[in-house]
């Protein structure tokens, strides 16, 4: 018996709707658009997993190709001057800083007789995806350069699987030191008192870590004056914070995906994911994680009650033996800036930290804001009650969200007033 075309159509529609639909909080605006976006990401990950299992392609490289191909199809994302660009007056140059590929944006106003702002940007993507030269990152940096008369340097640091920690961090640090040199600042007419470092997600992690290192390095005479961190990922010892639990099934960054990103970054065995999800890697029995270290990410103290809600900390007595020794990066402040001591934080530049309510990384940002403030650093925490991870990058049709546009405008306004 053959099914009629109308029946097949109905079945297919139901199947697609079942795959696309996920329950979302009432505060999320444009929920169906977010569902469709998330379904696209999930489909890319499922396809990548299949190709990896069949030996046809590496999991991450497959996702890269899918997302890059999708970006190329979206109207408005090509901001090259040959296509008219979103900011055609901005001069864009691809070059290297200390051997690291960067894209440099010079504002149309020029620097004749006037010093300009400077900003170094590190893109997100779980240390595995994304590019300084494509999509919304390119568009955002052009906007910042044009509107704020700023020389922007976006760093194309190396990614997993080609490299692991600490190479992406070292790439960013080398580029930052080159950017802050007197020769480069003079060449591009940048005011040494008005230089910022910024990044989103994994890029926020790199920006925070680089800002810390620059602040305590006496060989670097020019320091970053401010840091702007967009929903940064800052620690890998507790994957059971209130925001990790509240938003574990929230697009577009699911809790297991963030754990996988960490394991990839560290070059660790991906089979450790279940252990990290239940905090077996940070048990009380592990003497390497001292009480002082634990206090630096104790969300029962660092978070306000409205964010703690009714969640309870997951404290494991014994856990898995030797995980910290097996993955030493877990305790490295270059990977987890939230673990830095107060003497380091006290030297850090003024900070802008953007957090989103519906983001597993919300509490990382909130705890870092509190610890910086406790160390005497001025912090602006801009929290979006209807925000979700990645929204800052979704500003171009058809993947534009109102909260993303508001977040971008808030970021630019803060830079305008503080840089």
**Count of DSSP-assigned helices:** 17
> How large, in whole angstroms, is the Cα Rg?
22 Å
The CATH C-level name is Alpha Beta
State the separation between the terminal residues, measured CA to CA.
71 Å
Strand order across the largest sheet: 1-2-4-3-5-6-7-8
Q: Might you state the CATH topology name? A: Rossmann fold
Helix content: 40-55%
Question: Largest beta sheet, briefly?
Answer: 8 strands, mixed
- Unreliable residue stretches: 73-85
> What's the structural domain tally?
1
Domain Alpha/beta hydrolase fold-3: 119-276, 330-392
Protein name: Neutral cholesterol ester hydrolase 1
Active site: 201, 359, 389
GO molecular function, one term: acetylalkylglycerol acetylhydrolase activity
Brief synopsis:
Pfam families: Abhydrolase_3. The protein is of the alpha/beta class and 419 residues long. It is built from 17 helices and eight strands.
């Amino acid at each position: 018996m053959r099914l009629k075309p109308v029946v097949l159509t109905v079945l297919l529609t139901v199947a697609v709707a079942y795959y696309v639909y996920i329950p979302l909080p009432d505060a999320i605006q444009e929920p169906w658009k977010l569902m469709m976006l998330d379904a696209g990401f999930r489909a890319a990950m499922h396809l990548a997993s299949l190709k990896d299992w069949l030996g046809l392609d590496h999991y991450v490289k497959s996702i890269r190709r899918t997302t890059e191909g999708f970006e190329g199809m979206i109207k408005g994302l090509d901001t090259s001057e040959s296509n008219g660009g979103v900011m055609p007056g901005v001069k864009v140059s691809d070059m290297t800083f200390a051997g690291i590929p960067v894209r440099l944006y010079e504002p149309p106003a020029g620097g004749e007789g006037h010093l300009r702002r400077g900003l170094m940007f590190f893109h997100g993507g779980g240390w595995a995806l994304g590019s300084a030269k494509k999509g919304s990152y390119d568009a955002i940096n052009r906007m910042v350069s044009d509107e704020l008369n700023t020389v922007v340097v976006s760093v194309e640091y190396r990614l997993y699987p080609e490299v692991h920690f600490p190479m992406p961090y070292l790439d960013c640090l080398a580029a930052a030191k080159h950017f802050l040199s007197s020769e480069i600042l003079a060449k591009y007419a940048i005011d040494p008192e008005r230089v910022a470092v910024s990044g989103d997600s994994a890029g926020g992690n790199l920006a925070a870590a680089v800002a810390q290192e620059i602040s305590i390095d006496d060989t670097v005479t020019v320091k970053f004056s401010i840091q702007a961190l967009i929903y940064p990922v800052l620690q890998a010892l507790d994957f059971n914070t209130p925001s990790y639990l509240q938003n574990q099934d929230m697009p577009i960054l699911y809790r297991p995906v963030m754990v996988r990103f960490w394991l990839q970054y560290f070059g660790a065995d991906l089979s450790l994911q279940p252990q990290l999800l239940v905090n077996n890697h940070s048990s009380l029995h592990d003497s390497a994680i001292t009480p002082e270290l634990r206090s630096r990410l104790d969300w029962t103290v660092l978070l306000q009650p409205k964010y703690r809600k009714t969640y309870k900390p997951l404290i494991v007595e014994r856990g898995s033996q030797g995980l910290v020794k097996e993955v030493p990066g877990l305790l490295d402040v270059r990977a987890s800036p939230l673990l830095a001591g107060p003497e380091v934080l006290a030297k850090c530049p003024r900070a802008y930290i953007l957090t989103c309510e519906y983001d597993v990384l919300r509490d990382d940002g909130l705890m870092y804001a509190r610890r910086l403030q406790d160390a005497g650093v001025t912090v602006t925490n801009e929290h979006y009650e209807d925000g979700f991870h990645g929204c800052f990058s979704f500003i171009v049709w058809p993947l534009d969200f109102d909260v993303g546009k508001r977040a971008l405008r808030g970021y630019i306004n803060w830079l305008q007033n503080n840089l």
